[in-house]
Amino acid sequence: MEVKILSEKFDIENAHLLEVAKKHGAYSTLDKLFAMEPAAVTEEVKKSGLRGRGGAGFPAGVKWGFLPKDTGKPTYLAVNSDESEPATFKDRYILVRDPHMLLEGIIICCWAIGCNDVYIYIRGEYTTQVKVLQQAIDEAYAAGYLGDKVAGQDFRVDVTVHRGAGAYVCGEETALLESIEGKKGQPRSKPPFPAVEGLYSSPTIINNVQTIASLPFILTNGHEAYTAYGTEKSPGTHLFGISGHVEKPGMYELPLGLPLMEVIDKVAGGVWKGRKLKGVIPGGSSTPVLTVEEAKTVTLDYESMAAHKTMFGSGGIVVLDETVDCVKLVENLINFYHHESCGQCTPCREGLGWMKKITKKLLAGQGTLADVDLLRELCDNIEMKTVCVLSAACTMPVRSYLDKFRHEFEAYAIDNVSADAKLQGN
What we know:
Layout: H1 18-23, H2 30-34, H3 38-48, H4 60-64, E1 76-81, H5 91-97, H6 99-113, E2 117-122, H7 127-142, E3 158-163, H8 173-180, E4 204-208, H9 209-213, H10 215-221, H11 223-227, E5 237-244, E6 250-255, H12 260-267, E7 277-281, E8 290-291, H13 292-295, H14 302-307, E9 316-321, H15 326-340, H16 346-363, H17 369-382, H18 390-404, H19 406-411, H20 419-425
Parallel strand pairs: 1-2, 1-4, 2-3, 5-9
Antiparallel strand pairs: 5-6, 7-8, 7-9
């Protein structure tokens, strides 16, 4: 069931070092790359169907095609490594275990889009990852894979690592750009979109670490080899981080389209301690929860997730056993998103705070059924009424818990007295 494309060198000792990485094929695509026209590289990526692995799932090659021609401005590449979504930990594996795969992918992308300057925007807390990544960059410069003449070609690629300051919202592409420019990390209104007017008001492509790291395989083996995995509309493989109440949590590279329950049972060892399954968070904390019944029919691809009214997201699967209190889980979620709100938009800044107060009121035994209704109403009133989707990242999952596990919220309400109790009182 597991495959080895992105994770091929993960278990090789010291594969993060250039000498070891080269013995296992690192930078072997460059001769082929520079023999191709940039447009041909973009077309190969389009044919592969590679979709953005940061969560949105937008086709990478199509995004590259949005870049305007002959603007007289430089084109920038920003690699999004601000992996801050709770339950998501795939990109850090690439950064630590095979950073040269990422750098090779960066060179491929730069050739395709005509880019010379790259910024890797990395989560500030990733101290170990930054050290390993910077060491790989330094090695690549020394070996001539980065710098003024990449692999001896008349083509320059310079890579700068830009550390964030611990703001979740900077994972949003325009907030990321604001942060690189030295401004407060707040999302921009769109349009203009980054491909047209991004970093320093110039055309900019923003791709996730895993997206860029997938390019060496595609260029080496051709799009047919990549589309041999996955489904027609969701081709390729993905790094799935499986956590929560399973026997074997961890990182697994799997082809897209596998049944979710088959992955939980056969790959992750099933629900731990012999307990029953209660629900599954399919793609990180911002994705609506799946009930047991839904989990039995969903497959790990973008289309199936959408059909089940949730999202594939970042591939961070969290398994919830029967002991989970959904009200406490929701409180934890709201606390996180309220804390991470940049405060730019009133519905997010004030609305998430209001939701936080209601949840705390319920858990303190002071809430009512009207509070449960209000919490549900706030989800609809806040969502998609802000510049970015941070507020929706909170309201979408909260709504799903309220709709699918409402009885747990009502159980905390002080005016939820059962009919039997009323009769006994008479």
